[in-house]
Amino acid sequence: MPLDKELLEILVCPKCKGELDYMEQDNRLVCHACKLAYRIEDDIPVMLIDEAEPIQ
Prior knowledge:
Radius of gyration: 10 Å
Oligomer: single chain
Distance between the termini: 27 Å
Number of helices: 1
């Protein structure tokens, strides 16, 4: 189930407070400025910097 659009509008990167892109096919939120990806588990974004995955 995709994330609620209202939730996506208010979520920001916890590190830089920048915009996040929702990658529905990968089930994660991506901050291109910090090059971090935040996973989504059971329709809940895990917005912990220590839990984020670095991206290329």
